[in-house]
Amino acid sequence: HNETSTGVTSDIAAVRRAIDAAGHPALLLVDTISSLGSVDYRHDEWGVDVTVSGSQKGLMLPPGISFNAVSAKAIAASAKARLPRAFWGWDEIIEANKNGFWPYTPATNLLYGLSEACDMLLEEGLQNVFARHHRHAEATRACVNAWGLEILCQNPSEYSPALTAVVMPEGHSADAFRKIVLEHFNMSLGQGLSKLSGKVFRIGHLGDFNDLTLMGTLAGVEMGFALAGVPHHAGGVLAAM
Question: Does residue 160 sit in helix, strand or coil?
Fold first, then answer.
């Protein structure tokens, strides 16, 4: 749903419509690891068959808990599947869910954290949470544009509310820049992966993130540019405000 390495979101409802229009029996499986709790997502309404997610992004926890939402169609397909499964079958968990019993050793500390994270999201209100993420993403893009740098995602309708991937100017290493920012400001920026390695860095603005946190993050990036000798225009933080 939200492609973390590039800062691009997918129109899941459109994918469902395309599958239906083709009359294809394929199951629709969606990864929401970096969008759950940060971006509006509709498992049932969009006709998704399997949604997978994790605890370590929008739910503001360390990694260690995973989540599945499963349609009746997916459960029926699973029952007919012949691939051997020693752990990843849904049957045991679905049966255990009827009485709330955890069939394995539970990540107790993370479950307590998950309870608090859900309370935080509900207290703010999910629509307010999603609006805040959009606002911070827009501010970040305004900042990047003011710096005179390029946002990796080219289609505005696909901009990620959770993070922004920024293309480094030609001749400058994103990884060297990230190292300078980490060493001087103790701030970790995301790296580019695969073909984007060394070419982009990523600014995360998801989870328990407020306006002041964003301004501090963008200021750290701008100061890092100066230290690393990366060509840019000043005033990005002001543009974000």
Answer: coil
User: Of 198, 192, 144, whose CA–CA distance to 171 is shortest?
Assistant: 198
Which one of 98, 124, 150 terminates a domain?
124
Q: Is the pTM here over 0.85, yes or no?
A: yes
Residue 113: pLDDT band with limits 50, 70, 90: very high
3-state secondary structure 59-119: CCCCCCCEEEEECHHHHHHHHHCCCCCCCCCCHHHHHHHCCCCCCCCCCHHHHHHHHHHHH
Shared domain check, 217 and 184 = yes
pLDDT of 93 strictly over 90: no
Q: What are phi and psi of 49, to 5 degrees?
A: -90, -40
Q: For residue 187, list its beta bridge partners.
A: none
Give the span between the Cα atoms of 58 and 209, in whole angstroms.
10
Could you give the dihedral angle defined by the CA atoms of residues 212, 214, 218 and 220, in that order, rounded to the nearest 10 degrees?
70
Cβ atoms within 10 Å of 177's Cβ, excluding its own: 22
* Nearest alpha carbon to residue 55 among 122, 12, 128, 110: 110
Mean pLDDT of 90-108: 86
pLDDT band for position 94 (50/70/90)? confident
Q: What is the CATH number of the domain that holds 131?
A: 3.90.1150.10
The 10s digit of each residue's pLDDT in 216-229 is 999 999 999 999 99
